[in-house]
């Protein structure tokens, strides 16, 4: 029997990506073009520019992904694409490209939820064991997801304001660090001997939701007060205090979910998975509990199309296809 090769397109934010994945697990190609350099001088992603950049790259990237996969289009079984959540203009570019391909090649179209993609990036590393809990933390998302069985998942907690990575980027900006700020804060935090005291948003006792805007305000207040008093800014101590607060809440809630749902694995996904402190604390606490922590390589944690193809394979197995009038849904539910 011939293997199933799915070509996937991801354009939900500021990374254009096209990948070909075989049987949902083997990456034949995963071409990613980041727009970070373009957006850096604006201190964040500019939606209109993101859409235009996707348009410039998508066609050659599809060719490149096929070439690297050493496949001709007649070996493809389906075309997959991120339907949402994301920036509407950015999503549209990928959806248009995927629809055109599906139509021209007479292949089924598969619509994928971006968070499902982040979760199933783990499937490219090793088989997921159910039930599992996934912590998805990036510039756009902060979600705790309960995976009951393959393709059966539900969000048990999410951010009520800023995403974790977004908070990192805003705090970095206040400390005059470059965009994206996550890696800079991470590094600076490790240079401090002590942490500046920072609040933790636990919310209601049984809640798995997150909130980072209060923490962000606390940092901004500290920065402003230092400025008003003409004191030197203790950037490293602030970075450490901020980082400890974020990690404490993320790790505590993730482990509580692992316990409550009797998870057999904890899966980490999203760009913030690069954070050394977060990885260290999660693996320590998981080891204590005897629950394996799965962290994909960073190239699969940040936005990429291979994860979209991996998630699409589950829909392929159930012949869960989309129509050619598929629309982008910026606030798509999981
Ligand atoms: O998954 P990703 O590449 O894009 C989105 O879908 O958002 O995540 C990017 C986010 C940025 O906010 C960036 O600051 C953050 O991940 N990030 C980090 C680290 N590396 C990247 N945050 C904390 N610590 C890091 N080492
Ligand atoms: Zn993402």
Automatic annotation (TrEMBL):
Pfam families per record: TsaD
Binding site for substrate: 136-140, 169, 182, 186, 275
Ranges where the Gcp-like domain occurs: 27-309
Enzyme Commission number(s) from the entry: 2.3.1.234
Source organism, top-level taxon: Bacteria
Cofactor binding notes: Binds 1 Fe(2+) ion per subunit.
UniProt keyword tRNA processing, yes or no: yes
Cofactor: Fe(2+)
Amino acids binding Fe cation: 114, 118, 303
Similarity section: Belongs to the KAE1 / TsaD family.
HAMAP family per UniProt: TsaD
Protein name: tRNA N6-adenosine threonylcarbamoyltransferase
Organism: Gordoniibacillus kamchatkensis
Lineage: Bacteria, Bacillati, Bacillota, Bacilli, Bacillales
């Amino acid at each position: 029997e011939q293997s199933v090769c799915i070509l996937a397109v991801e354009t939900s934010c500021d990374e254009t990506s096209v990948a070909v994945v075989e049987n949902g697990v083997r990456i034949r190609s995963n071409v990613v073009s980041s727009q970070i350099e373009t957006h850096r001088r604006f201190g964040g992603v500019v939606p209109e520019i993101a859409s235009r950049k996707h348009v410039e790259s998508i066609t050659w990237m599809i060719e490149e992904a096929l070439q690297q996969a050493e496949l001709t289009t007649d070996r493809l079984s389906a075309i997959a694409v991120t339907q949402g959540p994301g920036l509407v203009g950015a999503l549209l570019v990928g959806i248009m490209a995927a629809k055109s391909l599906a139509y021209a090649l007479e292949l089924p179209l598969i619509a994928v939820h971006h968070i499902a993609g982040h979760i199933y990036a783990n499937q490219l590393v090793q088989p997921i064991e159910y039930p599992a809990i996934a912590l998805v933390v990036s510039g756009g998302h902060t979600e705790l997801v309960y995976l009951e069985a393959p393709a059966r998942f539900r969000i048990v907690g999410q951010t009520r304001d800023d995403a974790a990575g977004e908070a990192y980027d805003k705090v970095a900006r206040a400390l005059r660090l470059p965009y994206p700020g996550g890696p800079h804060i991470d590094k600076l935090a490790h240079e401090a001997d002590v942490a500046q005291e920072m609040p933790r948003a636990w919310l209601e006792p049984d809640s798995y939701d997150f909130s980072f805007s209060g923490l962000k305000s606390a940092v901004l207040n500290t920065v402003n007060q230092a400025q008003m008093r003409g004191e030197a800014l203790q950037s490293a101590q602030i970075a450490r205090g901020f980082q400890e607060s974020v990690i404490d809440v993320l790790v505590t809630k993730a482990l509580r979910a692992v316990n409550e749902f009797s998870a057999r694995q904890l899966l980490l996904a999203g760009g913030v998975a690069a954070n050394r402190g977060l990885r260290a604390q999660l693996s320590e606490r998981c080891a204590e509990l005897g629950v394996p922590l799965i962290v994909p390589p960073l190239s699969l944690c940040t936005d990429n199309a291979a994860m979209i193809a991996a998630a699409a394979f589950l829909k392929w197995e159930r012949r869960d296809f989309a129509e050619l009038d598929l629309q982008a849904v910026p606030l798509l539910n999981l």
